[in-house]
Amino acid sequence: MSISFDEFSAHFSNEIREKTTFRGETTFLINPLEIERVCIFLKSKLGFTYLTDICGADRFTPEDRFEVVYNLFNPESKFRLRLKVWVNEENPVVQTVTSVWQSANWYERETYDMYGVIFKGHPDLRRMYMTEDFEYFPLRKEYPLVGVAGSIPLPEIDPKANNREAAERYNRGETV
Amino acid sequence: MSLHQVSEIASGYEQLPKPRATFDNRFGERKKIYEVLEDRDTTIVLQDDPLESTMVLNMGPQHPATHGVLRVVLKLDGETVLSAVPELGYLHRAMEKLAENKTYHEFMPYTDRLDYMSPYSNNTALCLAVEKLGDIKVPPRAVYIRTIMCELARISSHLLWLGTMVMDTGAVSMFLWTFEEREHIYNMFDMLTGARFTISHCRVGGVASDFSSEMVNYMTGWLKEFKKRIPEWRMMLDRNRIFIERMEGIGVISKADALDLGLTGPNLRASGVAMDVRKDEPYLAYPELNFKVPIFENGDCYARYLVRMEEMEESVKLLEQALKKLPKGDVRTDNAKVSYPWKSEIYHSMEALIHDFMMTHEGIQMPKGEIYHAIEAPKGELGFYLQSDGSGYPWRLKIRSPSFCNLQALPHLVEGGMIADVVVSIGSLDPVMGEADK
Amino acid sequence: MSNQNPFGDGFVTTTLDALTNWARANSLWPMPMGLSCCAIEMMAMAGPKYDVSRFGSEVFRFSPRQSDLMIVAGTVTYKMAHVVKKIWDQMPEPKWCIAMGACSSTGGMFRSYPVLQGVDQIIPVDVYVPGCPPRPDAVIHALMEIQEKVKRERHSFQNALLSDTAYTKILQAEEKNTLVLQK
Q: In terms of CA atoms, which chain A residue is nearest residue B257?
């Protein structure tokens, strides 16, 4: 089944930057500060009542470095749609969609945790997985897979621990 | 009725006993008790009654009822939960970062450890996503093998859920019974793949090995036995007074809220939303098989229990049909550019050896693009969002994990309820932290 | 027949240490630190097929105060390490630890930023079990190894009776006596 996006494209001709189709999946590239209006339209007029996922991605380009991807689902017509926004590294601000779908809350928190994209108007923008005093955004491409030694402190080490030296080296921030 | 009578009733009404303890005098009495209890040496000054105030309770991350390392911070007023805040990340293992540094095949074993109660579903989800990205065709026998194993994984996951959740409500014997059946499923996985549950049996373009006749016989024999087990369990639980008292009307979520909060899988279907990826966007052999999707309207813990029990019954039917229809033929596609060659070939043919080496070293060369593919895992819609830059490594791999979405609704379920129901609500949502934390 | 003593009126000689060790080794109460996938195999170990109660260890205590064997089953992250250490500290002496699976032994396949590369960095580990996850048989083998270790322990009765402070006092008194004797 398919949905006609003519009305949608006409209504948001200024906001839509690009439309691509790959393997039968449609993707719209939207301006970052209009995403909430677009989502309200999609939910109320085109029936995309279920937000499947929001995730970030690092394009690793000098401009428009990060992208936030919204996967939407229409439970009536079983149609999937993808929206995207691009933001700069210096000012990674996107309008939140928590007012449209409540489920966006945790997805946006996760994106913030992993990429440092800030969602304007989010009610509770904390880190999702990492500790609150963690300084890095780990899914950015420049962050090493093995992490930065000493970035998450270890607890007080048991004097009888078998591998104490390694833990002390880690706490001092030394890499092997 | 005369005016006199009315006034009589009205005056009688006025004489009805008033509630004896208003807030003031009750507080006064309690204060006296504290004064009696306190000795001279104490320096405690009672600002207000401690029994009237709220307290914050920390549940987890090491708690037997949180099914792993979930941590919930609860604000309580006596026994009532005022608010609940789940805290995740105690099992964050950087799956998505690891995926960017592995080839598609190398990432397969990591998917086993996502939802570790049904590893085969995760393997299949990744393979189907990669196959959609590369437009790879899979031989029909492999499709059926995947379907059968996915349904076995669903039963295995639901069995573990049943054992632990009934244990949360207070009965231990169910845990032992479900584990007996789970051991049979593990035996089948063992016969097919050589591992008990982190199996990594799926491959891009097919599966790693074919069914043996021994395994098919074992499975048909076990199915006959297992079909008798489910009614036995349902006879014990469905109309069990204690079980119903613990489950019915607990953790209610309405249809609209369930959609808005992004519930998925059996939890969403228990709230009356007919959403199942097996029916909505048929994949594998599901369009050729005949099965129902159980849907309940109540949206409470009991409905979630019923959905999963009926799903198990449907899975048994699916397994029987699929075993009957199991086609003959190859189990992996013959295209060496996308799929590993057989080990027996490698020892005799130079091309196969080169292909095997290239596949391990460089991975499958995928076209540039991005796709999202979802399957119906036991916990709900498990999706993989892949961005490919044209190399053998995924540029970005996002796991849309159902447990993460389900847990988001936890505060909605438990707030306003009693503290003892928090345990049951978590159990009925069936979260797996390996998947929720990734 | 049943009320007759098959050994007759006799006695058995043993040391109190051996008796203590025998009792301890056959009633190791595990604290299941079930973190991820290995927890399922640990549950299978307690389940009907593998039945760890044959070794006196079926009483899984979720309170660290009541247990003397910690089975760290699963990936320990840096965030979780604080919790593991806190629970380990709460367990009373004497206590033992099994690092179950590759993740808790060495970090395993997760060489990534949030994962602690081996739980032995923060707590002492007695037995490492390889496997991802290990089969329940392997965990039972690890349990038997712990039992062997417990049986070889010395001064266990003395340590059990005396607290640390009393023990040091006795040592000090002994030291004084020896000093007196030397004089």
A: A102
pLDDT of residue B364: 85
CA separation for the pair B406, C93 (Å, rounded): 40
Say which residue the tokens 């805290």 belong to. Answer: B87
Taken in order B325, B331, B332, B333, the sign of the CA dihedral is negative
DSSP states along chain A: -----HHHHHHTTTTEEEEEEETTEEEEEE-GGGHHHHHHHHHHHS---EEEEEEEEE---SSS-EEEEEEEEETTTTEEEEEEEEE-SSS-EEE--TTT-TTHHHHHHHHHHHH--EEET-TT---SSS-TT--S-TTSTTS-TT--TTSS---PPPTT-TTHHHHHHHHHT---
CB contact under 8 A, A154 and C78: yes
Please give the torsion angle defined by the CA atoms of residues A139, A143, A148 and A151, in that order, rounded to the nearest 10 degrees. -50
Query: What pLDDT score was predicted for residue B147?
Result: 92
Between strands B369-377 and B380-388, the pairing is antiparallel
Question: Could you tell me the pTM of the whole model?
Answer: 0.85
The answer to whether the CB atoms of B94 and C110 lie below 8 A apart is yes
Terminal Cα distance for chain B, rounded:
74
CB contact under 8 A, A22 and B273: no
| Residue B411 in tokens | 């505060």
What distance lies between CA B256 and its chain's CA centroid? 21
Q: How far is CA B193 from the centre of its chain?
A: 24
Question: What is the distance in angstroms between the Cα of A162 and the nearest Cα belonging to chain C?
Answer: 5
Name the more confident of B1 and B425. B425
Contact B251, B424 (CB under 8 A): yes
List Cβ neighbours of B56 (8 Å cut-off, separation of 6 or more): B73, B74, B75, B76
Rounded Cα distance, C22 and B93, in Å: 40
Note the pLDDT of residue B51.
Answer: 58
